[in-house]
Amino acid sequence: MKVLAAMSGGVDSAVAAARMVAAGHQVVGVHLALSKNPESFRSGARGCCSLEDSHDARRVADKLGIPFYVWDFSDRFRADVVDDFLAEYQAGRTPNPCLRCNEKIKFAAVLERGLALGFDAVATGHYAQLDAEGLHRAVDPAKDQSYVLGTLHADQLQRCLFPLGDSVKTDVRAEAAALGFGVAKKPDSHDICFIPDGDTAGFLDRHLGARPGEIVDADGTPLGEHGGTHRYTVGQRKGLHLGRPAADGRPRYVLSIEPVANTVVVGPKERLSVTRIEGIRPTWAGPEREGQWRGHVQVRAHGEAMPALVETNGDHLVAQLDEPCTGIAPGQAIVTYDGDRVVGSATIARASR
To answer: Which of the following is catalytic: 48, 49, 98, 101?
Structure first.
C-alpha cells in the first residue's frame, strides 16, 4: 500500500513508520506543524510539535530512506482544537483537546489530504489494535490509547494502521535503539501540547480574562470568590481558597459550574458520586447500536472500564453504571466497550445520582 506515516518526532511514531517500511509498503513521512510560532525545543516531557520534534522526525525519515514533509495545519488546529478548548471552558464544560485533535486533525484532516493525494492509509504510533471487527484495546494496558481514538468513525478507522498495538512500550524502545534512532530514549509527551508550561489556568486567564464571581454551597450560601469559572472543573479540591470552613470540617469539592450565574458550587465528596451518565452526539467505531445493551464504559484516558447498562437512542446515550463513580464533568468523553472492542463514544452532557 501507499502509506502516509504521521511522525510526531517521538519514539512511537518512529517505530510505527519503520514497521511500515519493513512490511514493504510505499511510505511517506509527514510531520504536522500545529503552531504558527512553535517553540524551538521541548520542555522535558511537556508539549510536542516543537521545531526540535520536527527535526527528530526528519532524522528518522532520513535513516529509513523515505520522503518527508511538514504539513502546516496550524490554522485548522487553532480553529478546531484551541478555540474549541476555550469555548468549552467558557461554557462551564471540561474538554479533552487530545481527543479533539485526534478527531479533527490527526485523522480527519490528515486522512482528507492523504486520500486526495492518493494514499491508501495513514499509520500512527498509537497503541490500539484493528481487525475486521473494528478497534480494540492494545496489548500493553499501560499504553492503551483506544479511549483517545474512540471518537473516530468506522469509515476513518478503515483507512488507519496502528502498527504498535500488539507491542509493549519497552519492546518499542528497544526496537528503536536497535534501528539506531536517536529518539529511542526520548521522553513521551504529555499534558496539553499548546500549553507547554502546564499552566492551564494561566492560559485560560490570558485568553478568557478574569470574571470574578461567587463560590457557593449546594444551598446557594456564599463561601468565597473565584476569578473565573474557567479555572475550575468538577471534582476539583485544591485551589478553592474558601473564606469559610465547612461546619463539619470536611473538605469541599467542586460539584458543578454555572457559567450563566457565574458561580462555582462546592460540597462534600459524596455529592460527586454518580451512577447515570448522559451523552450526546454518539459516534460509532463500528456498526451503530440502538436500544439497550450491556458493556463497559470509560470516562478518562487512563481510567478503569466500568460495567454498565448502555442505552442509545438516536443522538442520545445513557449509561447506567453498576457501581458509582466520581468526578464526571460535562464536556468529557464517554467511550463504550464490548469486551476489549470499542463500540463508540459520546460527549458527556450531564451526570447524576
So the answer is: 101
**Which of the following is catalytic: 48, 98, 160, 193?**
193
Question: Are the CB atoms for 223 and 216 separated by under 8 Å?
Answer: yes
What integer pLDDT is reported at residue 47 of this predicted model? 52
Cell reading at 198? 502546564
Whole-angstrom Cα distance, residue 129 to residue 146? 8
What is the pLDDT at residue 211? Answer: 87
Strands ordered across the beta sheet of 222-226? 222-226, 213-217, 263-267, 253-258
The pLDDT score that the predictor gives to residue 210 is 84
Task: Judge whether 325 counts as a catalytic residue.
Answer: no
DSSP symbol at 230? G
Is residue 52 within 8 A of residue 183, CB to CB? The reply is no
Task: Find out whether 298 and 304 touch, Cβ atoms under 8 Å.
Answer: yes
Per-residue exposure over 45-54, b if at least 16 CB sit within 10 Å of its own CB, e if not: ebbbbbebbb
Half-sphere exposure in the Cβ direction for 73 (13 Å, CA)? 26
**Cell 467511550, located at residue:** 335
Check if 48 is active-site.
no
Distance CA 184, CA 204 (A): 34
CA distance from start to end of the chain? 50
* Per-residue pLDDT tens digits for 28-86: 999 999 987 655 445 544 455 678 899 999 999 999 999 999 999 999 999 999 999 99
Q: What pTM does this model have? A: 0.90
Stretches in the chain below the pLDDT threshold 50: 40-41, 44-46
